[in-house]
Design a protein that fits this description.
The chain is of the alpha+beta class and about 280 residues long. The chain has two domains: about 5-85, Orthogonal Bundle (434 Repressor (Amino-terminal Domain)), CATH 1.10.260.40; about 105-275, Beta-Lactamase. Helix content is about 45%, strand content about 10%. It has a five-stranded antiparallel sheet with strand order 2-1-5-4-3, sandwiched between helices. Strand 3 and strand 4 form a beta hairpin. Helix 2 crosses helix 4, helix 4 packs across helix 5 and helix 11 (about 195-210) crosses helix 12 (about 210-220). The longest helix is centred in the middle third of the chain and has 18 residues, at about 175-190. It starts with a helix and ends with a helix.
């Protein structure tokens, strides 16, 4: 799905010498960012060793070397975590079929405790909807059968809906902003689970079928997804703005409980209408 070599190159290309105070003396440069030799020198490693890392020929990289590269490349915390995840992957690894995901009973109990007025859903590792309450279903996917998450083979996939379903796309007024977050989080997940065959299949499918996904994936951006704002143009209640909050589950760390709360009074009224209709 992604290699340490590819991620290093994409991050090197985005850092200019000026950003790190490196003088170029006006000489012409053939690369958009730092040269390999420059990055190696600033990180305190040999140019030959860094070149082998970027070409996928070095077997290991120590924590100290990775942290030094992250410092020079100006990686944030999540990007650094992703760098370490990629470095732990063996050079050659086979994809494997993961077990079917099943939400933990305590997660389902928490979802039920929210009632039907607070929109919420439980998302799996790859963004599959494992469960949702009626308000969450009415808010995000009322055109899909409510009981769809009960069939593991045909669960709604939020990444597929987001990039391949025109109705889901039309729902999100800030689609461009959310699309970047979706792809960056999927890359983080891919670094955590490099042998997940279903995840690899999902990324491959979206890359082929969505030009927008392919372009965003090519940027190499990686980020977590925990809080944010969704501006929606809902077919039933019109325009509304909600904040999403992701709660991670200690009993099943692959799964996330995503809760939606209104950002203003008119949005609160819209959610109440949806809850009443659902």
């Amino acid at each position: 799905m992604e290699s340490l070599a590819a991620f290093l190159k994409s991050r090197r290309d985005r850092i200019t010498p000026v950003e790190i105070g490196l003088r170029t003396y006006g000489t012409a440069r053939r690369v958009p960012g730092l040269r390999r030799e420059e990055l190696a020198q600033l990180a305190g490693v040999s140019a030959g060793y860094y070149t082998r890392l970027e070409q996928g020929q070095a077997e290991t990289a120590s924590k100290q070397v990775l942290d030094a590269l992250a410092r020079v490349l100006q990686l944030d915390h999540i990007e650094t975590v992703h760098l370490h995840n990629l470095a732990r992957q063996p050079a050659k690894q086979a994809l494997s079929e993961p077990r079917r995901e099943k939400p933990h009973p305590r997660v389902l109990a928490l979802l039920e405790s929210l009632g039907e007025t607070m929109p919420a859903m439980v998302l799996g590792r790859r963004g599959d909807v494992l469960a949702w309450n009626r308000a969450g279903h009415a808010l995000k996917a009322e055109h899909i059968p409510f009981d769809a998450p009960q069939d593991p083979a045909h669960r709604p996939s939020t990444p597929r809906m987001f990039f391949l379903d025109p109705l889901s796309r039309d729902l999100h007024s800030n689609w461009d902003e959310l699309a970047r977050i979706h792809v960056a989080y999927l890359r983080l997940t891919a670094g955590r689970y490099p042998t997940d065959a279903r995840l690899a299949e999902l990324i491959g499918e979206l890359t082929i079928r969505s030009d927008e996904f392919a372009a965003l994936w090519a940027t190499g951006d990686v980020a977590d997804c925990t809080v944010g704002t969704m501006r929606l143009q809902h077919p039933t209640v019109g325009a509304l703005s909600v904040a999403y909050q992701v709660w991670l589950q200690p009993d099943s760390p692959d799964h996330r409980l995503e809760i939606y709360t209104p950002n203003d009074s008119s949005s609160a009224d819209a959610l109440r209408i949806l809850a009443h209709q659902s």
